[in-house]
Write a structure and sequence with these properties.
about 300 residues, alpha/beta, Rossmann fold, globular, S-adenosyl-L-methionine, SAM-dependent_MTases_sf, Ppm1/Ppm2/Tcmp, protein C-terminal leucine carboxyl O-methyltransferase activity
Length: about 300
Amino acid sequence: MGDEPVMATNDDASECKRGAVQLGYWTDDYISYFVRHVERRAPEINRGYYARVKGIENFIQKFISKAGSTAQILNFGSGFDTLYWKLKDEGVQIANYVEIDFPTVTAKKCYTIKRNKPLLQRIHDQDGEVKLSSTDLHAGNYHCIGVDIRNISQLEIKLRQAEVNFDRPTLFIAECVLVYIENECVNRLLTWISSKFKAGLFVNYEMCNMNDTFGEVMLGNLRVRGCNLAGIAHCKNLEMQKARFMNNGWLGSKAWDMVEIYYAISQSERHRIEKIEFLDEQELLIQLFQHYCICIGWLSQEFSELTCTDE
């Protein structure tokens, strides 16, 4: 079966995000270029994706406000993520933005960017040069590279091609990525990052509390689709998620389940999205939120005070 079912999770997540955007949960002017077809999802799923997007966004904003314009962002398993274009539209200045995924996925993304002028125009300035291969794209401060992150030596080569500066403050993002990777490979990746980069913050969105009945049902659904959850052992609870960073050379770590993340969003914003769709069973949403979390790890003291609250 290999990595194909894992790659397919990108299509599923992108469709879910586009569906939620269409209903008005949040704004994304670019997702429609990557996702054409959308089936309506259950309200719990839409709210789950909303919490995920808002929760991660909160840490991105806090990181950039601390790191400033020298910041770099490395987005692991980025799929059809549109964050780069969103930041560009907001006028956010950063030094470098690198998207990393399997070559099969980045090939599709590069092709879509090339074919859609609004995407292409935003990634380089007037005089900027666009370097494009079948799986990689380099333009200005935007890079999309195809590489298996389990292969550290190949990853390092590709990051150098993407002009990554290991001395700059760097934000690492992973959304439901590490769970599909063998634990020793994740440990190797986290150890390599902590030894290579001087300052950084890792924001990891992942499953947690998986050793109950609800968790078993979730895992069963993924296994039916052929997804091998090689890293599920670290998803038992929040403590294990944090330990993963602490055991691999990181300075500190914190974790929150998505119940906490959701209720940290301002009340007015929650009320706005709760009016979009009627939710019959609040209990199911809470159960879903209890089985996902955001865990952060930091390499430098300035990121140790970050919390999930919407300050």
